[in-house]
Amino acid sequence: MLIRVTDQELRTDEAVAAVASPRAGAIDVFLGVVRDNNLGREVGYLEYEAYPSMAERVMREIAEEAKERFGLEDCAVLHRTGRLEIGETSLLIAISSAHRSAAFEGGRWLVDAIKKQVPVWKKEVWGDGGAWIEGPESLGVQQAPAGVRE
Amino acid sequence: MQVKVLLFASVAEKAGVRKIQLDLERGDRVCDVRDRLLRAYPQLSPHVPTLMYALDEEYVREDALVPDGATLALIPPVSGG
Description:
The complex is a heterodimer.
Chain A: E1 2-6, H1 12-19, E2 26-33, E3 37-38, E4 41-42, E5 45-50, H2 52-70, E6 74-80, E7 82-85, E8 89-97, H3 100-117, E9 120-126, E10 129-132
Parallel strand pairs in A: 1-6
Antiparallel strand pairs in A: 2-8, 3-4, 5-7, 5-9, 6-8, 9-10
Helix pairs in contact in A: 2-3
Chain B: E1 2-7, H1 9-15, E2 19-23, H2 30-40, E3 52-55, E4 58-60, E5 71-75
Parallel strand pairs in B: 1-5
Antiparallel strand pairs in B: 1-2, 3-4, 3-5
């Protein structure tokens, strides 16, 4: 399973090669890319920060769970950090499975879980300022993710 | 006992620091550490309602006991992807 937090460019071919398997009839690839606007505001670029060791650990836990839930062959989850320009890939996911439905459904679930649980933050930077996004997609304090230690 | 506290993103920016070493009483919980940090960095109090916590890279509740030598991370709402 390829899991990585990196400040280097994310490469789709690497992720696809990592999940390829003779048992897989489908490989689903998802790219999260930087867009030039958010909530009606123009975005110049994004700055991603992570708690890298924990982020990789949480990404691996989520990927293991996705494998189990959807019967996937393999997953690759890569998240980039640092300054990302419009159009660059911030999140790269590749999933292999015997049939396409598991790859599509598992991919959707995986992306949603990653956005809610992995300790990564984005800052939107525009002409004369910037702001950390603590968006509606993230968990509030009352909804700690599954697996919280008592 | 010694505990390392890590700050990220909005919280690190507001505090002006990313890493704090603390000497604590045995038996302290996550919320005790947080309250002590708030005394030193009162500007963090608006973040408290949405903060999550991780001890040694695992999410924990605020009443979790902090072991000696632990790393406690203050996790503002995540926004990766």
